[in-house]
Amino acid sequence: MDYEDYPGWGNNREREDSYEQDVRQKLIDLFERNQKKVFFSRQLEVKLEDNYFHWITNRAIRALIADGVIKEETRPLRSAGEIHLLWHPSFRYYKREAASVVKLVEEYSNPNIAGAIGLHGETMVLEGFARNEFVMKGRKPARKHNV
Questions:
Q1: Could you tell me which of 94, 77, 93, 73 has the C-alpha nearest to residue 85?
Q2: Which of 28, 38, 49, 67 is the most buried (most CB within 10 A)?
Protein backbone atom coordinates (compact mmCIF):
# COMPACT_ATOMS: atom_id res chain seq x y z
CA MET A 1 0.00 0.00 0.00
CA ASP A 2 1.35 3.46 -0.95
CA TYR A 3 0.82 6.76 0.82
CA GLU A 4 -1.40 7.84 -2.06
CA ASP A 5 -3.89 5.14 -0.99
CA TYR A 6 -4.59 7.01 2.26
CA PRO A 7 -7.10 9.87 2.19
CA GLY A 8 -5.38 13.24 2.17
CA TRP A 9 -1.94 11.94 1.14
CA GLY A 10 -2.28 12.24 -2.62
CA ASN A 11 -0.95 15.37 -4.32
CA ASN A 12 0.54 16.94 -1.21
CA ARG A 13 2.61 19.27 -3.38
CA GLU A 14 -0.55 20.62 -5.02
CA ARG A 15 -2.10 21.23 -1.61
CA GLU A 16 1.09 22.98 -0.41
CA ASP A 17 1.03 25.12 -3.56
CA SER A 18 -2.57 26.16 -2.93
CA TYR A 19 -1.73 27.02 0.70
CA GLU A 20 1.30 28.95 -0.50
CA GLN A 21 -0.88 30.90 -2.94
CA ASP A 22 -3.34 31.65 -0.12
CA VAL A 23 -0.65 32.86 2.25
CA ARG A 24 0.98 34.92 -0.53
CA GLN A 25 -2.29 36.78 -1.02
CA LYS A 26 -2.68 37.29 2.73
CA LEU A 27 0.85 38.70 2.89
CA ILE A 28 0.25 40.98 -0.09
CA ASP A 29 -2.91 42.30 1.59
CA LEU A 30 -1.05 42.77 4.88
CA PHE A 31 1.73 44.79 3.25
CA GLU A 32 -0.78 46.85 1.24
CA ARG A 33 -2.63 47.76 4.45
CA ASN A 34 0.63 48.50 6.31
CA GLN A 35 2.76 50.33 3.76
CA LYS A 36 4.63 52.31 6.43
CA LYS A 37 5.47 49.40 8.69
CA VAL A 38 8.48 47.06 8.94
CA PHE A 39 7.91 43.42 9.88
CA PHE A 40 10.34 40.58 10.43
CA SER A 41 9.94 37.16 8.87
CA ARG A 42 9.49 35.19 12.12
CA GLN A 43 6.82 37.65 13.21
CA LEU A 44 4.79 36.92 10.09
CA GLU A 45 5.31 33.16 10.41
CA VAL A 46 3.92 33.29 13.96
CA LYS A 47 1.12 35.69 12.99
CA LEU A 48 -0.13 33.23 10.36
CA GLU A 49 0.67 29.94 12.11
CA ASP A 50 -2.95 29.22 13.05
CA ASN A 51 -3.69 28.60 9.37
CA TYR A 52 -0.31 27.92 7.70
CA PHE A 53 2.83 26.01 8.64
CA HIS A 54 5.79 28.34 9.12
CA TRP A 55 7.74 26.86 6.20
CA ILE A 56 4.86 27.59 3.82
CA THR A 57 4.71 31.20 5.03
CA ASN A 58 8.49 31.47 4.76
CA ARG A 59 8.44 30.08 1.22
CA ALA A 60 5.73 32.60 0.28
CA ILE A 61 7.80 35.44 1.79
CA ARG A 62 10.86 34.41 -0.24
CA ALA A 63 8.76 34.26 -3.41
CA LEU A 64 7.33 37.73 -2.77
CA ILE A 65 10.85 39.09 -2.23
CA ALA A 66 12.03 37.46 -5.47
CA ASP A 67 9.04 38.96 -7.33
CA GLY A 68 9.77 42.43 -5.90
CA VAL A 69 6.43 42.59 -4.11
CA ILE A 70 8.17 43.24 -0.78
CA LYS A 71 11.63 44.52 0.14
CA GLU A 72 14.01 42.77 2.49
CA GLU A 73 17.12 43.44 4.54
CA THR A 74 19.03 41.17 6.92
CA ARG A 75 20.65 42.66 10.01
CA PRO A 76 22.74 41.03 12.74
CA LEU A 77 21.41 40.81 16.27
CA ARG A 78 23.60 41.52 19.32
CA SER A 79 22.60 38.28 21.02
CA ALA A 80 23.69 36.25 17.98
CA GLY A 81 21.80 35.37 14.87
CA GLU A 82 20.16 37.73 12.45
CA ILE A 83 16.79 39.25 11.69
CA HIS A 84 15.13 39.40 8.27
CA LEU A 85 13.26 42.69 7.92
CA LEU A 86 10.44 43.10 5.40
CA TRP A 87 8.50 46.14 4.16
CA HIS A 88 6.33 47.42 1.31
CA PRO A 89 8.39 48.77 -1.64
CA SER A 90 6.70 52.18 -1.43
CA PHE A 91 8.16 52.73 2.08
CA ARG A 92 11.21 54.76 1.05
CA TYR A 93 12.35 55.85 4.49
CA TYR A 94 12.09 52.54 6.31
CA LYS A 95 15.38 52.67 8.24
CA ARG A 96 14.10 54.37 11.40
CA GLU A 97 11.19 51.91 11.66
CA ALA A 98 13.58 49.01 10.97
CA ALA A 99 15.93 50.18 13.74
CA SER A 100 12.97 50.34 16.12
CA VAL A 101 11.94 46.75 15.27
CA VAL A 102 15.50 45.48 15.75
CA LYS A 103 15.79 47.28 19.10
CA LEU A 104 12.54 45.73 20.34
CA VAL A 105 13.56 42.22 19.25
CA GLU A 106 16.96 42.61 20.90
CA GLU A 107 15.34 43.84 24.11
CA TYR A 108 13.05 40.82 24.38
CA SER A 109 15.67 38.31 23.26
CA ASN A 110 18.05 39.42 26.02
CA PRO A 111 18.97 36.36 28.15
CA ASN A 112 18.01 38.22 31.35
CA ILE A 113 14.48 38.85 30.05
CA ALA A 114 14.10 35.25 28.87
CA GLY A 115 15.32 33.95 32.24
CA ALA A 116 12.91 36.20 34.14
CA ILE A 117 10.00 35.06 31.97
CA GLY A 118 10.97 31.43 32.58
CA LEU A 119 11.09 31.90 36.35
CA HIS A 120 7.76 33.71 36.31
CA GLY A 121 6.22 30.88 34.26
CA GLU A 122 7.50 28.30 36.74
CA THR A 123 6.02 30.30 39.64
CA MET A 124 2.65 30.48 37.85
CA VAL A 125 2.60 26.70 37.32
CA LEU A 126 3.51 25.99 40.94
CA GLU A 127 0.80 28.43 42.10
CA GLY A 128 -1.72 26.63 39.89
CA PHE A 129 -0.73 23.30 41.40
CA ALA A 130 -1.09 24.71 44.93
CA ARG A 131 -4.54 26.17 44.19
CA ASN A 132 -5.69 22.76 42.99
CA GLU A 133 -4.16 21.08 46.03
CA PHE A 134 -1.49 19.17 44.18
CA VAL A 135 1.43 18.31 46.44
CA MET A 136 4.99 18.35 45.23
CA LYS A 137 6.82 15.55 47.02
CA GLY A 138 10.23 16.48 45.72
CA ARG A 139 12.34 17.48 42.81
CA LYS A 140 14.75 15.28 41.10
CA PRO A 141 16.70 16.10 37.98
CA ALA A 142 15.74 14.43 34.75
CA ARG A 143 17.76 11.35 33.92
CA LYS A 144 20.14 11.56 31.04
CA HIS A 145 19.51 8.90 28.45
CA ASN A 146 22.50 7.08 27.07
CA VAL A 147 22.39 6.84 23.33
A1: 73
A2: 38
- Residues 25-61, buried b or exposed e (16+ Cβ, 10 A)? ebbbebbeeeeeebbbbebbbeebeeebeeebbbbbb
pLDDT digits (tens, 9 = 90+) for 21-48: 999 999 999 999 999 999 999 999 999 9
Contact between 75 and 83 under an 8 Å Cβ cutoff? The reply is: yes
Please give the domain boundaries of the chain with CATH numbers for all domains: 11-131 (1.10.10.10)
Contact (Cβ atoms closer than 8 angstroms) between residue 71 and residue 24: no
How do residues 92-141 score in pLDDT, each as one tens digit? Answer: 999 999 999 999 999 888 888 878 889 999 999 989 988 998 887 777 77
C-alpha–C-alpha distance, residues 146 and 47, integer Å: 38
